[in-house]
Amino acid sequence: MVPTVEWKDGAVCLLDQSRLPAAVEFLTCRTYQDVADAIRHLKVRGAPAIGVTAALGVALGASSIDAKEYASFAKTVLAICDQLAATRPTAVNLFWAIERMKRRLEALHGQPVSLIKPALLAEAQAILDEDVVLCKNMGRHGATLIHDGQTVLTHCNAGSLATAGYGTALGVIRAAWEQGKKIQVIADETRPVLQGARLTAWELMQDHIPVTLITDNMAGTLMRQGKIHLCIVGADRIAANGDVANKIGTYSVAVLAKAHNIPFYVAAPYSTIDLKTRSGEDIPIEQRNPAEVTTIHGSHPVAPDGVAVYNPAFDVTPAELITGIVTERGIFKPGELAKQFQS
Fold this sequence. Notes:
Elements: E1 5-8, E2 11-15, E3 26-29, H1 32-40, H2 47-63, H3 70-85, H4 92-107, H5 113-142, E4 151-154, H6 169-178, E5 184-188, H7 195-206, E6 211-214, H8 219-224, E7 230-233, E8 237-239, E9 244-247, H9 250-259, E10 264-267, E11 273-274, H10 291-294, E12 295-296, E13 299-301, E14 314-317, E15 324-327, E16 330-332, H11 337-340
Helix pairs in contact: 1-2, 2-3, 2-4, 2-5, 3-4, 4-5, 5-6
């Protein structure tokens, strides 16, 4: 697997996902502003990957602060945290990772700044390393849901590209494949940014996992024909009641799955579960540039100039449409999450 994000030679190195699948190029972020720009413009995307990248961005920004006294140093670090937190509003992993970096900073109060800087980098690296382990544990649990010979539908990209490695929803699929199960994957193209077409199809092909790409409006017909056996997607935020925010179009897939009596699963680590958010109604939904809808990749117009556009990046799938949520601790009903993850 190509590394999504890593610390390399004093900088944050990112696989530029805006260039896939045409080119595999890496972006070197030498300032925290570079990191913020990369998150904001989808150079890196996927809730867990955004969280890891933001944590490394905090460490990167801290490394360049000249202040020698803790108070001045901490004030600047917190300002960096605020700027990174302002990049995207929906994926809770972003805020979770930044808060973890803040707690580490606070725990180091009184230590020399020269020791705090490498400690912050170590914390960010720990977040990255833990994410890979979490995803592999999710894959191990979730693989039990997929049987030999089945076809799985996924929406958007929740693979190694959306995490520090291995993936959430695609991690489950990857684990089932590694167990020798002969499975097929159906990938929605995922308009308007085409993460399914550009990223999921590319990633699965890299692993030689059989994948078929469909347009977003084909899923219902395939379900009716009995060609899809289960659905599994990732998540950007899961509310305390089990409602799930994920890429726009996820709700439609869940409704179709319910209508055709097909299991619908979500895979996400504990950092995506937001017990402070009561329900999906309270999840902020990012509104993005209309050009994502009216053009392909910012060029090639597909709509008339001046047309009104509504472009929410995410939608919310109610808990009652979700068969189960795959986590690193096991598989739970949506209503069980608050009890399982309250500590």
